Amino acid sequence: MLQSLQKVSFEDRAVPKLRDAENDVRVHIEQTGICGSDVHYWQRGRIGDFILTSPIVLGHESSGTIVEVGTKVRNVKVGDRVAIEPGVPCRRCDYCRSGSYNLCADTVFAATPPHDGTLQKYYTVASDYVYPIPAHMSSEEGALVEPVAVAVQICKVAELKAGQKIVVFGCGPIGVLCQAVAKAAGATKVIGVDISESRAQFARDFAADEVYINKPRLAQGQDPMEAARAVGERIVADFGLGEGADVVLECTGAEPCIQAGVFAARKGGMFVQAGMGKENVVFPITAACIRALTLKGSIRYSTGCYPEAVRLIAEGKIQPSKLITHRFEFGDAEKAFEVVKQAQENTLKVIIAGVKNET
Amino acid sequence: MLQSLQKVSFEDRAVPKLRDAENDVRVHIEQTGICGSDVHYWQRGRIGDFILTSPIVLGHESSGTIVEVGTKVRNVKVGDRVAIEPGVPCRRCDYCRSGSYNLCADTVFAATPPHDGTLQKYYTVASDYVYPIPAHMSSEEGALVEPVAVAVQICKVAELKAGQKIVVFGCGPIGVLCQAVAKAAGATKVIGVDISESRAQFARDFAADEVYINKPRLAQGQDPMEAARAVGERIVADFGLGEGADVVLECTGAEPCIQAGVFAARKGGMFVQAGMGKENVVFPITAACIRALTLKGSIRYSTGCYPEAVRLIAEGKIQPSKLITHRFEFGDAEKAFEVVKQAQENTLKVIIAGVKNET
Amino acid sequence: MLQSLQKVSFEDRAVPKLRDAENDVRVHIEQTGICGSDVHYWQRGRIGDFILTSPIVLGHESSGTIVEVGTKVRNVKVGDRVAIEPGVPCRRCDYCRSGSYNLCADTVFAATPPHDGTLQKYYTVASDYVYPIPAHMSSEEGALVEPVAVAVQICKVAELKAGQKIVVFGCGPIGVLCQAVAKAAGATKVIGVDISESRAQFARDFAADEVYINKPRLAQGQDPMEAARAVGERIVADFGLGEGADVVLECTGAEPCIQAGVFAARKGGMFVQAGMGKENVVFPITAACIRALTLKGSIRYSTGCYPEAVRLIAEGKIQPSKLITHRFEFGDAEKAFEVVKQAQENTLKVIIAGVKNET
Amino acid sequence: MLQSLQKVSFEDRAVPKLRDAENDVRVHIEQTGICGSDVHYWQRGRIGDFILTSPIVLGHESSGTIVEVGTKVRNVKVGDRVAIEPGVPCRRCDYCRSGSYNLCADTVFAATPPHDGTLQKYYTVASDYVYPIPAHMSSEEGALVEPVAVAVQICKVAELKAGQKIVVFGCGPIGVLCQAVAKAAGATKVIGVDISESRAQFARDFAADEVYINKPRLAQGQDPMEAARAVGERIVADFGLGEGADVVLECTGAEPCIQAGVFAARKGGMFVQAGMGKENVVFPITAACIRALTLKGSIRYSTGCYPEAVRLIAEGKIQPSKLITHRFEFGDAEKAFEVVKQAQENTLKVIIAGVKNET
User: Fold this and answer.
1) Which of B11, B132, B291, D114 has its CA 20 to 30 A from that of D273?
2) Which residue of B241, B249, B270, B295 is the best one to mutate when testing the A interface, meaning the one whose CB has the most A CBs within 10 A?
3) Does D168 score more than 60 pLDDT?
4) Chains in contact with chain A (at least 3 beta-carbon pairs closer than 8 A)
């Protein structure tokens, strides 16, 4: 667990009880993917308003096997293998009641202070936030349902329709998964954009129809917005997008990408901001307005994202295990965090096996 | 007519013929409102990509009486008094065919180079772009259907629902008309925001439930974004908006207002950018994203805006003639432009009477 | 309470405990409106799949005062006067999680077998299903929030927009409340339709712009569908609806009204079925299809309906107490049911006062 | 051409001129599919309000090569091979202007009285209603863009989303094409329903995941609605649809299918009526209402349907030429109509080659 800034430790704990004896389940954790946000807490102790003030367990991308169920649980039973959705909302606020539980301010979200994450032997959670995975899906794939569900939500926010042309900024894990989800939804052309040739190459092999390698260097004296506009327009021209992309999915949070994205979209198009970077960016508001774009932020998941992600993996439409570049045993968790922290170009997804059941 | 930069003149012209002898109508112009964009061409010769290269007639907010109709025209007849929608789209591009004619690149828009505007004795236009006004509506009100239709479109883009709490940045003509349209659509609380006390006072008298006077001075060393955030949060707190405004309509184009607007909106809320100001602004993209806002640009009008604007005026729900602060005869048109150019705080709407029919 | 078919009795019960000691509240019931469904259970013992097999307490349209709150309740406190939403859903199924809790199969709905209703001294319920009413709203109005919320939901399902022309079949309580909600949402023309002149007259006085009295007698040998079509077309012609109504709200469940409604709607229009009558009706499917209508069923309420109904009453936009034709003391409840059962033309809303607190 | 009821003839005509010398094109027709509606006019002389009063040319599913273009035409040039959309709307009514041109009452629709169809050597039409097809698409496929576009519109009306479970009633041409469009849009399970084993078999081979053969015989004394309900529920149970189908596409117009469809849909689901049969059917209105279904009619096409249909064929996602069971030369057109009229189980699509260019 994360004791304090940059200090991790292991701890023996009693087997946790179900907080809600009727509706909770206890899961034996089998695999856990590591995400940038885990490393963020490890290194900086905060993300936005969430601040680490006492030790917490990290990890929120996990799969496992049900070992205990509450008295009223019907959707899963002991022995079922499941993917775990890491945030359980309050179910009572207007956001929850109207179907936007991703906006609930009282969500208990794994590994978001002060809530413990899933890098434990056991994790207890509400039964409707675990989702059975079929026998032919590995536990690694089960853990990677989480980032696939993030991509499903991004594409849901974007209201994708079959036959659209889609530009995805970013060929990291979320970017390439968005590209794959978009292809599975019948997109006719999906363009991945990245500054890294190796990531772009991976994206092309994974799901994208085409990739654009965005050389970020400005010419001397070049206005950054003019450069971004040129990138956006070049993507439209190079890939025959006509009036522009129907949908832009921005998965980097990088200012030049956000800017270029506006100029890559067609009039009346959709722009979804999913990546998180600088708090504030210089934004081409007049261009966005004249183009009558719809811009939306995507955050977490909503009802149906996890089942849809499980389905896409189970049907072979998306193969997220191709993203795994590093595997660690539970005892080597700190090494795993170190790898993610270094963020080398060829690191995509790092995964940590759970504590074996017999220990 | 506008001969060239800052030079206007009068000109005798032959009575224009219907370009489409089947479907056009000719209107004798009776009243024309002056808009900032007219003055913009007069003073600077361009707006965005539209550049003045040869003389054009200004004016695009007009009413008049039908004096000639094409052979197939059925919706109006000679003698009908009408409001004129100034932009006629191509009807053939995908935008036109799918109901987004405001995005048509081939629109013939009055007083947008190279197309002549309505400050003439006669104006010819497609019959489906004139809308009858009832006998009890004045020609001045007929001319002001245009800015009301702009407000109707903004509120349509915002997908207003009855019972919402709405913050409108700007208490100029478009701002106060948006406030009135929102009230007519059943909004429970409409807050107008402006830096001018007299404009705010007008807004309160016109339609807003409450107004907020935004003192734009930054404290020494204060971060502009922090100041904007404080303004947004103060509006929410002062007017009991709870989680924030359901809808923010930004009608100023001013950077601090755009920024404050993001912080005035509730999570999952709607933000419509209608004002045009700086091309690029510093934008709180992370806040917009975490709040899962939907941001949309509003531009011109769409089908139904003009009839709805006529209805709102005809039913007395909106009284746009209250906005008129200055009236000029046709021969004094240049003075009218001068008044608009000076843009004094107490100038709202300037209107120019048409050439009398007997002249 | 309803002991069995057509048998009611009074019963002394212990003060009920909060089922959820953290999140429930206990309400002292002050007023309860009687609805056709209560009488239905009383007389026939079933509605659809809901069958009376053991005694239940009737009543589900109630207001009262909070007398006890769970340990985590924050939205209300003891002494608050509230309207009670009668159905609390499971919060865990996909319908609940996606914002359609009105479709939850596990809803605990007051007075729907086997759940007790609100015609008791005290009723306990989840705290987020009670809604504070302001001091100037009477307890009778608080009880009538329920039918207003039904009308709000119907209009929400219909996706009302300001400026629409709306035909409402039925001038009973739900019909006239829909008419009032539509007017408050900025409808330009609301036409009420009923077979009863006195009801139609009430509708005109209450909120409708116009009413149509539908004489249901068929001419000898007339095809019922042709008669219905004629009624629909006559409504369009008589009230100048042009292409037809933008929205038809069917609040009767009567076959001829459903049929006429299809012909009263414009192409591309909206038809909401809210009334419940015969299970199956002869339906003009080809006309509905060629007109490209959208038909939707409305059932119960969704998030926001109760607060919106409270607001409409509190702001004086709707005055539901005008609907009350009969008032009874708690001890005379059976008489109240008898009045509702007789369903005379001039009976609109019957209301029963609660057990006084000192008893 | 169709001279009068059941009488067809051939006629020599002058090469037609462009009606709009600026915007029309002339197409040399190469292939034309025959549709039930053509035969309907041939045999009965009317469909609904469209009545044959003078001779018309039949045919509306055609492809060909551009042989003449108007002076302003830019989207195609002489020599381009195109699919022809058969209905050109007025472009001026509110339906056209708001993107619902399929509802335009003044549409000039090929082979709908009094307008001539495409079974001619040349057909002139507005340039934005022809769509280029790539070199690798055959002219037969070009003609079959029409029924594919019908299916695209049905699926667009249904607002398909990836991952949905879809039941399609009918395995005729439109039914199987809907099944294919739904699969291309990422549907997880598409169930085709038909009474014919051979059609069902074709559907399974073509695109459906599963098929259900609906034996239409009622048990003695069985209520038809109960039988329909049983069919709907059996489809849900047999194919593991859980709560029911997300979307039902009704492509038969047959009363028992419409009825069964309501019971096959999940609560909150979508039901699109696309087939045309009896004017009026017995409809389970209460079930539809309690399930809170959305029912919509689909009619003709809208902007984007033709390009999307061309794309689906060009990318090999749909292979409509598999539907062709009979091919005829132009001179044998009457035999083609005869085959369609007989409507044998194994007849899917009948196609007629155009008049050769050298004749």
Assistant:
1) D114
2) B295
3) yes
4) B, C, D
> Which residues of C are less than 8 Å from A94 in CB distance?
303-304
Neighbours of chain C (3+ CB pairs under 8 A): A, B, D
Amino acid, res. B358: E
Calculate how close chain A gets to B21, using CA atoms only, in Å: 33
The ipTM of this complex is 0.94
List of chain D residues whose C-beta atoms are within 8 Å of the C-beta of residue C250: none
pLDDT higher at C99 or A220? C99
Is pLDDT at B326 greater than 90 in this prediction? Answer: yes
* 8 Å CB contact between B277 and B255: yes
Q: Closest Cα of chain C to D268: distance in Å?
A: 8
SS3 C136: coil
User: pLDDT-based confidence at C285, cuts 50/70/90?
Assistant: very high
Q: Do D298 and C292 touch (CB under 8 A)?
A: yes
According to the model, what pLDDT value does residue C7 have?
77
Q: How many CB pairs under 8 A join C and D?
A: 118
The chain D residue lying nearest A308, using CA atoms, is D163
Q: What is the pLDDT of residue C359?
A: 47
Instruction: Report yes or no: D282 and D303 within 8 Å, Cβ to Cβ.
Output: no
Q: Hey, which residues does C29 pair with through a beta bridge?
A: C64
| pLDDT tens per residue across span D217-249 | 777 888 999 999 999 999 999 999 999 999 999
Q: Are A88 and A108 in contact (CB under 8 A)?
A: yes
pLDDT classification of D97: cutoffs 50, 70, 90: very high
Following DSSP, what letter does each residue of D263-329 receive, concatenated?
HHEEEEEEEEE-----S-EEE-HHHHHHTT-EEEE--S--TTHHHHHHHHHHTTS--GGGGEEEEE-
Which residues in chain C are contacts of D233 at CB distance < 8 A?
Answer: none
Contact B74, B35 (CB under 8 A): no
* CB count in 10 Å sphere of residue A332: 13
Own/partner contacts of D2-6, CB < 8 Å, gap of 24 or more, are D2/D41, D2/D42, D2/D52, D2/D55, D2/D56, D2/D57, D2/D58, D3/D55, D4/D45, D4/D52, D4/D55, D5/D42, D5/D43, D5/D44, D5/D45, D5/D52, D6/D42, D6/D43
DSSP D174: H
Give the distance from residue A171's alpha carbon to the nearest chain D alpha carbon, in angstroms. 22
Tokens of B267: 């999570």
Q: Is the Cβ of C304 closer than 8 Å to some Cβ of chain A?
A: yes
pLDDT at res. B43 = 81
Least CA distance to D301: which residue of chain C? Answer: C292
| CA atoms of A182 and A178, how far apart (whole Å) | 6
Range with the poorest average pLDDT among A298-302, B11-15, B322-326: B11-15
User: How do residues C65-87 score in pLDDT, each as one tens digit?
Assistant: 999 999 999 999 999 999 999 99
Interval A90-121: pLDDT, tens: 999 999 999 999 999 999 999 988 899 999 99
d(CA D229, CA D256): 9
| Contact: C308, B185; criterion CB under 8 Å | no
Q: Which residue of A has its CA nearest to D186?
A: A185
Mean pLDDT value across residues B213-234? 89
Q: Which chains contact D through at least 3 pairs of Cβ atoms less than 8 Å apart?
A: A, B, C
E strand or H helix that includes residue C290: helix C285-290
User: B226 CB near a chain A CB, below 8 Å?
Assistant: no
